[in-house]
Amino acid sequence: MPTNSSQVITQLARHLRAGDPEATPGARLLHEGIPTLMAPEPADPARMGTPSEKTDLQSRLDGKSLDVVFPVLHGTFGEDGTIQGLFELAGIAYVGSGVLGSSAGMDKDVMKRLFAQAKLPIVKHITILRSDWEASPRKAISQIETSLQYPLFVKPANLGSSVGISKAHDRRELGPALDLAAKYDRKLVVEQGVGGKKSRARELEVAVLGNDTPRASVVGEIIPGKEFYDYEAKYLSEGSVPVIPAKITRAESKQIREMAVEAFRACDLAGMARVDFLMEPEGKRRIYLNEVNTLPGFTQISMYPKLWEATGLKYRDLITRLIELAVERQQEKNRNTYSREE
Question: Rounded to 5 degrees, what angle do the CA atoms 163, 164, 168 make?
């Protein structure tokens, strides 16, 4: 791989702040819908700007080629396959899962269908449409209560960072929880809580790395500072405590790591993913696969790199390996033929 690729990625990461049109020309282009050119060929200088205007970003790249894109974007349009489709059209190598895997990893309804097809243990749940909830709230609540027992977790199917997620302890809380989730998506996933009313599930996480032959890190545990690991517990409060490695048996660790790799393959993921689990706190200590996160947090204090650090892979080496995996995957795709040969 050309030696300047890491320098280019570093420059991109330093100057781009997602979602702020005042921060960078690139964000302004996306915000205002200005036609954008990105040269996919590594032999040519990378471009991001209007056809008639050279942007500040181009100047910063200083003529260097764009070998690999490392998307550090969360949520809608960043990890749902949308931006990945743009990279595919441009023929640019990029870190992480492709269009299909990214979309499946974002949609909790589709994700659970794939897990069930792979015979992986998941919590009892149902999916209802926003239109059905709004048209007949009583019927929707009856359907939920017939299928599941409180407490319930209500989630928008397509979102991340626990945005729009509520825990409903009874019918009085269920309606507002469905209303909140319906603000963010047309599909609402309702899950039966693990542990019942008296105790809460243990939240375990595994980092997975690789393409066709993925491997799993040690298992970590998040002890939330709140009743569950919601947006505030993740980003705003300081009460949540990571425990690496998790205090579980060797057999439980082996089972979770194997399930993480199976989940990775079930969703056709690539590069990296954080796989989250729920474990009964007592009794049979049954383990349930919760979800995959195809673009997990990647600061030095985020769980994904911390899990690999505990496994023996340093932060810098992890980034290098992810870039290598992106190049390998692009090379594999370059073997495909897209037209019929006579």
Answer: 125
Residue 205, strand partner residues: 220, 276
- What DSSP line would sit under 241-272, residue for residue? EEESS-S--HHHHHHHHHHHHHHHHHTT--EE
How many independent structural domains does the chain possess? 3
Same domain, 208 and 253: yes
SS (H, E, C) 317-328: HHHHHHHHHHHH
Are 157 and 227 part of one and the same domain? no
For residues 184 and 203, state if they share a domain: no
Pairing of the two strands 287-293 and 187-192:
unpaired
pLDDT tens for 150-193 read: 999 999 999 765 678 999 999 999 999 999 999 999 999 999 99
* 128 shares a domain with 205: no
Could you tell me if 220 and 325 lie in one domain? Answer: yes
pLDDT, tens digit, for every residue of 113-143? Answer: 999 999 999 999 999 999 999 999 999 999 9
**45 occurs within a structural domain:** yes
In degrees, rounded to 5, the angle at the alpha carbon of residue 280 between the alpha carbons of residues 102 and 75 is: 20
Q: Are residues 216 and 147 in the same domain?
A: no
Q: How far apart are CA 66 and CA 47, in angstroms?
A: 8
The predicted model scores a pTM of: 0.78
- Residue 12 sits in which domain range? 5-95
Residue 151: asked if its preceding bond is cis (omega within 30°), the reply is yes
Strands annotated E in the chain: 68-69, 93-94, 125-129, 152-156, 166-168, 187-192, 202-210, 215-223, 241-243, 271-279, 287-293
